[in-house]
Amino acid sequence: MSAENKSIYAALLANLMIAVIKFIAGAISHSAAMIAEGIHSVVDTINQMLLLMGLRLSKQKPDKHHPLGYGKELYFWSFVVSILIFGLGGGISLYQGVTHILHPVEAGDPNWSYIVLALSLVFEGTSLIIAALEFNKLREGQSWWGAFINSKDPSTFLVLFEDSAAVAGLVIVAVCLFLNHLLNAPYLDGVASLLVGLILIVISLILARESRSLLMGEGIQDKTKKRIRQIVEEDKDVISLMHLMSTYQSPDEILMMLIVAFKPGLVTAEITQATDRLREEIKLEFKRIRFLIIQPDVYLDKIDANVQAYI
């Protein structure tokens, strides 16, 4: 098992182990909420398989059709995962919830449901702890939300959000199941399914927004831009870094273009030596910058405000 994919494998194993028994318990107890939880586990299992496939495809080497590589495969499949959470997980759970609120079904033996919920909380809770520990290693002093927004690796935060939604859903189902049998109110089973569906839809919208942003092409952080500007403008042959453009091709690959104003009077050989020197120094410090293009340009005292905003 790859260490970097530990949280995905843990989530996959947890969901695979409990999906079937949730359906069995739901059928025995006539619980729509348990059926919704079973669907949730199936969707999560499919999601982890798609993430693993996306990770594998993203490691393919560049070829004539994709000269910059296949890194964005991971971003594409993470977007697909967010859509599946919305459509299959959230949509079916909402349907189950509304149906059982309008047409309540008398509850059967709840004992199986309680056993399954307890086991599910153990497995999902363990998976959540592993995902949280893995994500915590990547925070680097940022808040949890800030680390999520700035993360370029959906395989880390997708599992964290999925497991959080799963644990929240299990708690809701357990509470509603208990109240259902205590108060003899079978409509609460539908309410639990409805709440689980709403949680999944909210989570899916958050994940879809971030996955779409990564797929469209996010750039490097401001602190990295400042450091690269410092490296470039400290070079003896440089007047100014006029423009910096960057995009993540994958969590470990950045494509960057620098437009640099060199000192007047330099011959072509000197400019070539300077660009090679800058490229080597930048890539030595920032290992993720795999593709670095440096374009010489004429220095302007007044740079257009729209251009300056990107630097």
UniProtKB/TrEMBL annotation:
**Domain (Cation efflux protein transmembrane): residue spans on this chain:** 9-216
Give a yes or no for keyword Membrane in this entry: yes
TM region positions: 7-28, 34-53, 74-94, 114-135, 156-181, 187-208
Q: Report the GO molecular function annotations.
A: monoatomic cation transmembrane transporter activity
GO cellular component terms, alphabetically, are: membrane
As for membrane topology, the entry says:
Multi-pass membrane protein
Q: Where in the cell is it found?
A: Membrane
Q: Which UniProt keywords apply?
A: Membrane, Transmembrane, Transmembrane helix, Transport
Q: Which SUPFAM superfamilies match?
A: Cation efflux protein transmembrane domain-like
Supply the InterPro entries for this chain.
Answer: Cation_efflux (IPR002524), Cation_efflux_CTD_sf (IPR036837), Cation_efflux_TM (IPR058533), Cation_efflux_TMD_sf (IPR027469), SLC30A9 (IPR040177)
Main localization, broad class: membrane
Q: Would you tell me the protein name for this molecule?
A: Cation transporter
What is the protein's species of origin?
A: Mucilaginibacter corticis
Lineage at the top is:
Bacteria, Pseudomonadati, Bacteroidota, Sphingobacteriia, Sphingobacteriales
